[in-house]
Specification:
By secondary structure, this protein is mostly helical. The chain contains six helices and four strands; from the N terminus they run αβααβαββαα. The strands form two sheets. It has a two-stranded parallel sheet with strand order 1-2. The chain has a two-stranded antiparallel ribbon with strand order 3-4. Helix 2 packs across helix 3. The chain is globular and about 35 Å long. The two termini are about 20 Å apart. It binds a DNA duplex (13 and 13 nucleotides) through helix 2, helix 3 and strand 2.
Length: about 110
DNA sequence: CTCGTGACTCCCG
DNA sequence: TCGGGAGCCACGA
């Protein structure tokens, strides 16, 4: 278990219901701005080993990167079931669904 | 170390 | 909205 992986898990677990975070944002909070790809990779691996709310993580465009049949419907359904707002059916409302990152950077 | 891969991100047309 | 190119970091072989 790498410190980066551990941090990512910590952050992702901090995401409350009805809220979401971006891969890049999580990477930044973990102290690795630019490692957005790893965040995704870690979620992919850890989601099966740890009980992580991976569905609360999306790309910087406010959309689901997972392709249909690869988890897209899963994340979409989970987010919607938690109260996350979707625009045009795919776009998430960062205006109200984006998690308050200040509560993380201030805790560190 | 080197090579290949990935649920990313920004830029340009 | 979609496609191509470049940069970033971490993991596995």
């Amino acid at each position: 278990m790498k410190p980066f992986t551990q941090d990512v898990i910590r952050i992702v677990q901090q995401i409350p219901e009805g809220k979401v975070l971006t891969y890049g944002l999580v990477a930044v909070l973990a102290g690795h701005p630019g490692a957005a790809r790893q965040v995704a990779g870690i979620l992919h691996v850890m989601s099966g080993k740890h009980r992580l709310p991976w569905h609360r993580v999306i790309n910087a465009r406010g959309r689901i990167s997972l392709p249909s049949g690869r988890g897209y419907e899963e994340q979409k359904a989970l987010l919607v079931s938690e109260g996350v707002v979707f625009h045009t059916g795919d776009q998430v409302d960062f205006d109200s669904c984006l998690m308050d990152t200040d509560c993380l950077v201030s805790r560190g």
